[in-house]
Amino acid sequence: MGKVALITGITGQDGSYLAEFLLEKGYTVHGIIRRSSSFNTGRIEHIYKDRHDTGVKMYLHYGDLCDATNLIGIISKVKPEEIYNLGAMSHVKVSFDMPEYAADADGLGVLRMLDAIRAAGMEKTCRFYQASTSELYGKVQEVPQSETTPFYPRSPYAVAKQYAYWILVNYREAYGMHLTNGILFNHESPRRGRTFVTRKITVAVARIVENMQKTLYLGNLDAKRDWGHARDYIEGMWMMLQQDEPDDYVLATGETHSVREFVEKAFKYAGVEIKWKGPAGTVDEIGVDASNEERVLVKIDPAYFRPTEVDLLLGDPTKAKTKLGWESKTPFVKLVEEMVKEDLAIVRGEIDDAESREQ
Ligand code: NDP
Ligand code: GDR
């Protein structure tokens, strides 16, 4: 008999890769999905189809991290041996518009999950992974950032995630539960939501080279991120829960790149060389096609600036490497290329977009 896992956020980027990964390993996978007026299971549609064809063991339950009764009901019924709490209002900029909701879903949501495990009497049998984040480091205190770097959150999202981080540590110490924080640095993929900067860029590059869009509007080009591939990172999540003792781990590549560099590499893969003109780092800077400077491809829109920014993230994944044997496998340029390649194929109608596909 395979193990039973429960994933919150199964319809998101990470949840969809993790569901595939656990099914491959013979798990029975339960996922919590939110009721929505439009289709929100595009990223897991292919596995769901398989379930009817080949008996894949995946089950979906309606629920929400803001509904404690619902969570107690699902956990008591499913009796998971492993829970991966990936559900969250995960957009940093949006959290400034809905700070109370971010606190509720991303902060208190974790408390509700932990209390639901206790209410079901599963403190000793259920292992729990919390999707913690490099956003906890926020305003730079130390570079590179590791498990011992102090936190300084810079958004309502990150403050909520800090509550989640500490309530987990407290419950681990208070009740001896197997609870783990994975402090993951940014990880991307062709399944990344289109409002995160990497996917926004790769979608725009594909549309621009196919003459469906003229200009890409961005905010801060100089923010630096440690970008890995989501597929590599979900394996690290699973490895954490296979350890005898629960602990907290950073997953990162150990490399950092600016948004500006991501833009350059993405256009380059599509055959366009970007030349920057105007005062660097201001709203008047533009990115033009180096072979035809009249063609303005990138402009700055201050609407995308954040009230407080995280300037530099660079992770030190030494502990994950030493204790878990985990390593990021996808180099930065390969990640950019895979994303542009897939968006070009979507724009050209050669493949479906896993995120927005509708039935
Ligand atoms: P996505 O935004 O792609 O997915 C978020 C998931 O959470 C979706 O399934 C969404 O459902 C669900 N969700 C949102 N609100 C609720 C709620 N109130 N109750 C239940 N489910 C909810 O995020 P990612 O896959 O990129 O990230 C997964 C987790 O990892 C998140 O917690 C994120 O904060 C964290 N994280 C992500 C990193 C990254 O670089 N990707 C890095 C570090 C941490 P729906 O589809 O209906 O919107
Ligand atoms: P981030 O990801 O905030 O790091 O959070 P995002 O891709 O949104 O931003 C990265 C950096 O790019 C700058 N930026 C822009 N960002 C967006 N979204 N849109 C733009 O037009 C734009 N222009 C510049 C941002 O200012 C920022 O500096 C992600 C999420 O997945 C979180 O859930 C997760 O916890 C962290 O990564 C680690």
From TrEMBL:
What's the EC number here? 4.2.1.47
- GO BP, sorted A to Z: 'de novo' GDP-L-fucose biosynthetic process
Cofactor needs: NADP(+)
**Which terms are listed as keywords in the entry?**
Lyase
User: What CDD domains does the record point to?
Assistant: GDP_MD_SDR_e
Q: Does the keyword Lyase apply?
A: yes
UniProt cross-references to InterPro entries, sorted A to Z: GDP_Man_deHydtase, NAD(P)-bd_dom, NAD(P)-bd_dom_sf
GO molecular-function annotation terms?
GDP-mannose 4,6-dehydratase activity
Query: NAD(P)-binding domain: from which residue to which, for each copy?
Result: 6-339
Q: Which Pfam families match?
A: GDP_Man_Dehyd (PF16363)
Top-rank EC class of the record's enzyme: lyase
Q: Which family does it belong to?
A: Belongs to the NAD(P)-dependent epimerase/dehydratase family. GDP-mannose 4,6-dehydratase subfamily.
- NCBIfam families cross-referenced by the UniProt entry: gmd
> What is the protein name for this chain?
GDP-mannose 4,6-dehydratase
